[in-house]
Amino acid sequence: MSKIYHHPVQIYYEDTDHSGVVYHPNFLKYFERAREHVIDSDKLATLWNDHGLGFAVYKANMIFQDGVEFAEICDIRTSFTLDGKYKTLWRQEVWRPDASRAAVIGDIEMVCLDKEKRLQPVPADILASMMAD
């Protein structure tokens, strides 16, 4: 398992429903942003543009334990592990300020694909750079 990466997310009014609580699909966006910071945007662009490889969500499971509200700044805690040569498993948690447990837990499975959507091994240099941080 990798180290735990931290990514702050400001909760905007547009992220919430009529009651001021985050609309549940928005957590997938927060998780995506946090993963992009772990891998690095420039590396993802180079991987796609120069090598025709990218990552896609294969499976996502989420547990909602607490509501997250407008104006909070939450900590998205992310860790990952390699599961075979094609897939990475990500544990992502949304932590509210001063919370004693995660508000939302996401277990995300990502696969590496080429432009024809065929499985490809996760590039060793990408994995190495993610583990080095």
Automatic annotation (TrEMBL):
Matching entries from InterPro entries are given as: HB-CoA_thioesterase_AS, HotDog_dom_sf, YbgC/YbaW
What's a Gene Ontology MF term here?
hydrolase activity
* PROSITE patterns given in the database record: 4HBCOA_THIOESTERASE
Has UniProt tagged this entry with the keyword Hydrolase?
A: yes
Question: What SUPFAM superfamilies does the record point to?
Answer: Thioesterase/thiol ester dehydrase-isomerase
Q: Does the keyword Cytoplasm apply?
A: no
**Which UniProt keywords are listed?**
Hydrolase
One matching Pfam family: 4HBT_2
Please state which protein family the record places this protein in: Belongs to the 4-hydroxybenzoyl-CoA thioesterase family.
User: What is the protein name stated in its UniProt record?
Assistant: Thioesterase
State the organism named in the record: Photobacterium frigidiphilum
